[in-house]
Design goal:
Blueprint (H helix, E strand, L loop, with lengths): L1 E4 L3 E5 L2 E5 L7 E6 L10 H9 L1 H12 L2 E2 H8 L3 H13 L3 E6 L7 E6 L3 E7 L2 E7 L1
Parallel strand pairs: 3-8, 4-9
Antiparallel strand pairs: 1-2, 2-3, 5-7, 6-7, 8-9
Length: 135
């Protein structure tokens, strides 16, 4: 994982590759592709905001390998549980992670979080910014 800023934002988190002059203006296109090829709507600013947060990127890195609970994420990322929950909220609102239930045979069930995409790509063209999220 690396972060490099030179008037434009460039970061790589496993399969997340972005090279983004922070978008401004109405010429932004958003496209989500799935295995079925259908398109959904996403909040572009929510995605960019979440990807700009180092803790969010650490959480995405962790949940790409396997589903994790908030407590496991807090330990792995070296953050407080309250910070992890705030970042989970950002990532969930952006549609980048999903919450599932981990069934336990004893005791309470736990929420666990999984990556909700295969790849995120941002293209900057003369027509504007295209954010592509493959699910």
């Amino acid at each position: 994982m690396s972060l490099h800023i030179t008037g434009e934002l460039l970061f790589v988190v496993h399969r997340i590759r972005c090279h983004v002059p922070m978008p401004a203006g109405p010429t932004t296109a958003i496209e989500i592709t799935t295995d079925a090829g259908t398109a959904d709507e996403i909040d572009q600013q929510a995605v960019f905001h979440a990807l700009d947060e180092p803790v969010c990127r650490a959480i995405l890195t962790a949940v790409q390998a396997e589903a994790r609970t908030a407590r496991e994420l807090a330990e792995e990322c070296g953050q407080s549980l309250s910070t992890v929950y705030r970042k989970i909220s950002l990532l969930t609102d952006a549609g980048l992670i999903e919450e599932h239930t981990r069934i336990k045979t004893r005791g309470k069930h736990a929420s666990q979080y999984v990556c909700a995409f295969e790849e995120i790509a941002v293209s900057v063209t003369a027509d504007g910014v295209l954010l592509r999220v493959s699910r």
